[in-house]
Design brief:
18% of the residues lie in helices and 21% in strands. The protein contains two helices and four strands. The protein has helices at residues 14-18, 43-47; strands spanning 3-5, 24-26, 31-33, 53-55. The relative contact order is 0.39. The protein binds iron/sulfur cluster (2 copies). One iron/sulfur cluster (SF4) binds next to helix 1. Residues 5, 9-15, 31, 47-48, 50, 52-53 line the site of one iron/sulfur cluster (SF4).
Length: 56
């Protein structure tokens, strides 16, 4: 299990600093989550202004 960032992402960067394990980084057209690092805490879902991160 891991969170994924959907195409709704507007690349604001707000979620990156809030991830406790540094699993979020900027991708080509949206931010991305490293599924192997994500610990499913849900912090990014709460931080995102557009609801882009979803539990997979
Ligand atoms: Fe990071 Fe938590 Fe979001 Fe996973 S669910 S990417 S650990 S903030
Ligand atoms: Fe994208 Fe939401 Fe993260 Fe901003 S907080 S970079 S919109 S996933």
């Amino acid at each position: 299990m891991a969170y994924v960032i959907t195409d709704a992402c507007i690349s604001c960067g707000a979620c990156e600093a809030g991830c406790p394990v540094g699993a979020i980084s900027q991708g080509d057209d949206k931010y991305v989550i490293d599924a192997n690092a994500c610990v499913d805490c849900g912090a990014c879902e709460g931080t995102c202004p557009v609801g882009a991160p979803k539990a997979e």
